[in-house]
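User: Good morning. I'm curious how adenosine-5'-triphosphate would be positioned relative to this chain. Could you predict the structure with it bound?
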Amino acid sequence: MRLKDDNDEEEGPKTMSHCSIGHLQPEKSFVIVGYALTSKKVESFLKPKLEGLARNKGILFVAIDQNRPLSDQGPFDIVLHKLTGKEWRQILEEYRRTHPEVTVLDPPDAIQHLHNRQSMLQCVADMNLSDTYGKVGVPRQLVIKRDSSSIPDAVTKAGLILPLVAKPLVADGSAKSHELSLAYDEYSLQKLEPPLVLQEFVNHGGVLFKVYIVGEAIKVVRRFSLPDVTKRELSKNAGVFRFPRVSCAAASADDADLDPSVAELPPRPLLERLAKELRRRLVVF
Ligand SMILES: Nc1ncnc2c1ncn2[C@@H]1O[C@H](COP(=O)(O)OP(=O)(O)OP(=O)(O)O)[C@@H](O)[C@H]1O
Ligand SMILES: O=P(O)(O)O[C@H]1[C@H](O)[C@H](O)[C@H](OP(=O)(O)O)[C@@H](OP(=O)(O)O)[C@@H]1O
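Assistant: Good morning! Here's the predicted structure, ligand included:
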């Protein structure tokens, strides 16, 4: 695709003949992905290796200038974004209205649904997905909107079983949204700062699977996770403890020597069914 320039009278065929982006192969069709990401996200996600791999597969990443009208940029085949704020959402909604041919990953309303750890999981709970390959569920959880002094009574009333994982209710990609704590006793829960969600801790052998889904593509990776909490540890410990991002990319367990019962990947047919249901219910790619 030739990117528009001043003397471009009409959009030529999707060939890279007069492109202003480096020295690319002539006469090669590209899918143009316009991206709007924070500088932190560009650094952590858009590595040169990824850009090179994408280019070899005919995909070109082009930065969206957030200081210029989106419609004056491109043309794009896809807009990939991870920005927050009402203004950006309005810009994107207007762009979607005037550019129905462009795939926006993902529609702002759908993402809003995922910015909350209650609504994010509600669609999984509603799915009630269970078949011969397995069952998909969510930990029992309780949302605390305000008044931390009410937490112990609320936990007792809900019948949640300790230990509990405390997570900010808002999951907007901010550093604060990743500040998680592990609570061993109810009384200490009063130290937490609502709004938050309290989830029962689910022992899972210290390994978790991160499943990445784009369209029909599913990629599963193993990551180290919080270790199991035994009843003995629970009886000996008290308090609330902040823990780091234990399952980040650096905590890969793909090549670790693990017990097969812990390392066995989830059945592919179950993941495919889950992915299909999530995409349908969440209206995301
Ligand atoms: N209910 C739970 N039971 C046991 N461990 C849990 C539970 N919830 C979270 N964890 C542990 O906490 C880690 C982070 O949890 P979660 O993925 O919900 O937070 P996050 O901030 O979204 O993480 P990420 O860094 O992937 O964005 C998980 O990798 C897992 O180790
Ligand atoms: O294990 P990964 O690297 O996939 O974890 C991601 C995580 O899934 C989220 O995408 C995080 O993005 P935010 O929610 O916007 O924070 C990523 O955080 P980042 O700070 O590394 O971009 C995690 O890496």
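Confidence is low (pLDDT under 50) at residues 1-21. The two ends are 24 Å apart (CA to CA).
Let me know if you'd like a different ligand tried.
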